[in-house]
Amino acid sequence: DGGITQSPKYLFRKEGQNVTLSCEQNLNHDAMYWYRQDPGQGLRLIYYSQIVNDFQKGDIAEGYSVSREKKESFPLTVTSAQKNPTAFYLCASSLGLAGGQRQETQYFGPGTRLLVL
Amino acid sequence: AQSVTQLDSQVPVFEEAPVELRCNYSSSVSVYLFWYVQYPNQGLQLLLKYLSGSTLVKGINGFEAEFNKSQTSFHLRKPSVHISDTAEYFCAVKGNTPLVFGKGTRLSVIA
Questions:
Q1: Which residue, of A19, A99, B18, B41, is most buried by count of CB atoms within 10 Å of its CB?
Q2: Does the pLDDT at position A99 exceed 60?
Q3: Which A residues 29-68 touch B at CB under 8 Å?
Q4: Do B41 and A33 touch (CB under 8 A)?
């Protein structure tokens, strides 16, 4: 089955702790994205990557970090600098620059809910 | 930069009645437009998209949307809703910046 997997489904963070959310895709997509969803806020872009070993900040990157060492994987670290991390985090992927018009269609994983203890 | 406004945060509708969820966008460049659906505690699923060509776009689950460039709108419609359509719906626009999402419309179908 092709798709995007996110783990864990639920994650708990203690004060001052960094936590890492996993995102893996087997769709052979070049581009990957991380969004944060809060009630009534829609989705806000944290980071995105168009190609391996390259990524750009989105609208709310402060307190987060990412890496893109492999095409299939785009982990997100929520650092202790993120003072309000409680949210639903969604990972997505798309074909990327090689896909023409189709590059713009993003496909989403099931999400990870992060809660603060 | 692009922006999206979903004009209704909540829409209640009776089962088998028609529904329209409204979406307006602003952009100084050509855009691609999308509607996604989200069921509780799940990711987003693509309903339909407008990339080019016919302005009337048909999607999954009987939904359709019409791209109106002069009114900068991309409203989502379904002629007869089911209980299973209860969910949150997001409109999104892509221009020359990354995809921008609206704040969502919660559709509640009443039996």
A1: A19
A2: no
A3: 33, 35, 40-45, 48, 58
A4: no
Q: Who wins on pLDDT, A101 or B55?
A: B55
pLDDT digits 0-9 by tens, B22-74 = 999 998 888 899 999 999 889 999 999 998 888 999 999 999 999 999 999 99
Closest residue in chain A to residue B10, using alpha carbons only: A40
CB contact under 8 A, A43 and B90: yes
Q: How far is B27 from chain A (nearest CA, A)?
A: 16
pLDDT of B80: 97
DSSP 8-state symbol, A70: B
Mean pLDDT of the B83-107 span: 94
A89 contact B CB<8A? no
A45–B98 CB contact, under 8 Å: yes
